């Protein structure tokens, strides 16, 4: 595995690979890799000639009160995990490499961001879309892999690729979970022992909500109320949101949708956990 730290070197390497007609899979990350990231790498390895991952903690997607400075970092560990998975190239730029001057152009996301996490994190997905636009131009991947744990991000990336006509196939990958159902996340390390025992109830609430919908429940307010009560009774977390939308459009449900998302965010003492479940309804 080769580590590349500059945009110029990465671009030159990619152009060389393209001349050899090699297909490139790309997994963008902010590091502190876990099994969720590794599942994306495995998927890319199985579908492409070359797999590139990036590790870059993007400052543009963190708000002034968010955890940029405390975001977990461990490059040596990440390097070993990536090498063990057979990654071909690890793009590891610095902030000054990616943003050598104040950006004169930023990407603004105008849809799919006023709900779920985007509602309470103004500008977050603008930062995501801006850095992905840069990374897509640098890496020139044929396929890009994203985890459905952050299903709103997948929806935003879907819009980015389609609106800007990137010749990239978006490959969503199912959420990787612990044995007890908790979604893998870099932020899980911030849970206390008691909170870690409580956290699996978030996914359990989603499964129970799905069961209600499959059995014919059509009142979203009833489902949301049930989930909120269930989480409050079984955890010490504070519900940030529980919402149901069409997917990937992230629009209010009208009864005609074939695919829905139920998503939630719950704040614990030092960690805010998100999770979701996507339901494909019968046609």
Q: Which characteristics define this entry?
A:
283 residues, alpha/beta, Rossmann fold, Pantoate--beta-alanine Ligase, Chain: A,domain 2, 2 domains, 6-stranded parallel β-sheet, 3-stranded antiparallel β-sheet, 10 helices, 9 strands, 19% strand, Rossmann-like_a/b/a_fold, ATP-binding, EC 6.3.2.1, cytoplasm, pantothenate biosynthesis
Q: Sum up the overall morphology in one term.
A: globular
- The helix tally amounts to 10
Helix content: 25-40%
Distance, first to last CA: 46 Å
CATH homologous superfamily grouping of the largest domain: HUPs
What is the number of strand segments? 9
Beta-strand share of residues: 15-25%
Low-confidence stretches are: none
* Major sheet: 6 strands, parallel
Radius of gyration: 19 Å
Number of domains: 2
Q: What structural class should be given to the helix and strand makeup?
A: alpha/beta
Pfam families: Pantoate_ligase (PF02569)
GO biological process, one term: pantothenate biosynthetic process
Binding site for (R)-pantoate: 61, 153
Protein name: Pantothenate synthetase
Write the layout of secondary structure elements.
Layout lengths: L1 E3 L2 H13 L4 E6 L5 H13 L2 E6 L19 H10 L4 E3 L3 H4 L17 H5 L3 H16 L3 E5 L3 H13 L5 E5 L19 H6 L1 H15 L5 H15 L3 E9 L12 E9 L4 E9 L3
Parallel strand pairs: 1-4, 2-3, 2-5, 3-4, 5-6
Antiparallel strand pairs: 7-8, 8-9
Helix pairs in contact: 6-7, 9-10
């Amino acid at each position: 595995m080769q580590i590349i730290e500059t945009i110029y070197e990465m671009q030159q390497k990619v152009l060389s690979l393209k001349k050899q007609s090699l297909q490139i899979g790309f997994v963008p990350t902010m590091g502190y890799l876990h099994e969720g990231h590794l599942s994306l790498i495995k998927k890319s390895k199985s579908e492409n000639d070359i797999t590139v991952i990036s590790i870059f903690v993007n400052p543009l997607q963190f708000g002034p009160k968010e955890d940029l400075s405390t975001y977990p970092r461990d490059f040596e560990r990440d390097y070993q995990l990536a090498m063990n998975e057979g990654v071909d190239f690890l793009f590891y730029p610095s902030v000054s490499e990616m943003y050598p001057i104040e950006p004169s152009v930023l990407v603004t996301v105008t849809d799919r961001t006023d709900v779920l996490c985007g509602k309470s994190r103004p500008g977050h997905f603008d930062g995501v879309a801006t850095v992905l636009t840069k990374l897509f131009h640098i890496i020139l991947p044929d396929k890009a892999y994203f985890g459905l744990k952050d299903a709103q991000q997948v929806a935003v990336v879907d819009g980015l690729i389609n609106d800007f006509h990137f010749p990239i196939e978006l490959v969503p990958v199912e959420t990787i979970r612990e044995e007890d159902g908790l979604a893998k996340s870099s932020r899980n390390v911030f849970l206390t022992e008691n909170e870690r025992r409580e956290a699996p109830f978030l996914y359990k609430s989603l499964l129970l909500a799905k069961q209600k919908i499959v059995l014919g429940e059509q009142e979203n307010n009833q489902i949301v109320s049930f989930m909120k009560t269930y989480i409050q009774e079984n955890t010490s977390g504070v519900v940030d949101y529980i919402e149901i939308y069409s997917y990937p459009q992230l629009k209010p449900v009208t009864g005609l949708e074939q695919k829905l998302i139920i998503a939630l965010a719950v704040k614990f003492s030092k960690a805010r956990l998100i999770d979701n479940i996507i339901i494909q309804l019968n046609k």
